[in-house]
Amino acid sequence: xxxxxxxxxxxxxxxxxxxxxxxxxxxxxxxxxxxxxxxxxxxxxxxxxxxxxxxxxxxxxxxxxxxxxxxxxxxxxxxxxxxxxxxxxxxxxxxxxxxxxxxxxxxxx
Length: 109
Prior knowledge:
The protein has a domain at 3-78: Orthogonal Bundle (434 Repressor (Amino-terminal Domain)), CATH 1.10.260.40. Helix 2 packs across helix 3 (36-43). By secondary structure, the chain is mostly helical. The protein has helices at residues 3-20, 25-31, 36-43, 51-61, 72-76, 83-91, 96-108. 65% of the residues lie in helices and 0% in strands.
């Protein structure tokens, strides 16, 4: 992944996860002790930030830092509450027949 691609993925994921958590840029900025302008610039890919700030953002958004750099399908997993995110993560990339077997098992429980 190039630096440009990493910045684009990071920006998109922060915005997407923040919105999934129904959080405004102002709320995120306040919780990480930064300005709304800084959050806006980070989400638009205009500026970068320190890893310590990414740690703060990840903590507030309830994700791991590395998940901020994952493709959108993987980043979405942590927007599920509790263990559901883990289950969805485990099912990613499985074959349709495997998923059907899991669905059948769940429905029968």
